[in-house]
Amino acid sequence: MRGRRFASNQDIERHIANGFGAGAGAEYVPWLRVQDVPSMGRSWKIQGVKIDRIHHLLSDLERAYFLLCEFSEDVVDIREQYPLLPVESTQAIARAIGVRYPKYKTTSVPMVMTTDFLLSVKQPNGDVKSVARTIKYAKDLQGKGCARTLEKLEVERRFWVSQGVDWSIVTEELFTPDLILNLVFLRKFAKLPRALMDVPLHLQFIEILESIKGCPWSTSESLRKIGHRLSIPYTDARDIFFNLIWRKTIRIELSGAPLQLKSPLPDFSVFYPTEISTLSEKSS
């Protein structure tokens, strides 16, 4: 699909009218899509498992942060490449602090600045608030050549302050490579066939898993034994195990080492969701 060009203010107005940068949940349309931005590195189009739409991520680092957001229980909506509109607001901020406002390449058209992620985040009291997050590699924020980047980030920061929205910069220091590898792996098991989403089956699975905790078996061998006792195929036992980890019913350390079926069963704890704990109480 061809990317969009921004050669005039009319182009911007047309894209706004067509819904780019608007909506929420599955209806949100990113202001920028992968095909709209010449990439110096890898970019990603990923079907969401939390939000049912294609997400447009412009770097490996954005992808890594996106995986964290999908894994988080507190993040309820993810809007990437979110526009800072109206343009007059960011232009006014730039003028006030003496920053040259960015323009589209080879034009005199003021650019629609964007924030990498606008998230809806559930608070401990049940409220949902918006937070804005900009994703940058640490090296791009220090040393020679970063002055222009920092100028534009200050415009972005002040825009969100004016909106009463919490804003901060996220770098690769937030997570380990192993954590991202594990989330990529676990994400494959985020959704199970309906036949495997049976709460009594999960309860039995967890009971057997806890009973073999500490046994000198590999993860795959442990799952084969669980599958045998439940009279289900090994692949079903594997899928349930990793789905329960993704859903945080089974909690393990994900940052320190990659998950491998040939490795020993990892140390784990169990957090029973309401539907499982209620059934457990009835059966005891």
From TrEMBL:
CDD domains: TnsA_endonuclease-like (cd22362). The keyword Metal-binding does not apply. Pfam families: Tn7_TnsA-like_N (PF08722). Residues 72-172 form the TnsA endonuclease N-terminal domain. Keywords: Endonuclease, Hydrolase, Nuclease. SUPFAM superfamilies: Restriction endonuclease-like. One of its GO terms (molecular function) is endonuclease activity. This is TnsA endonuclease N-terminal domain-containing protein.
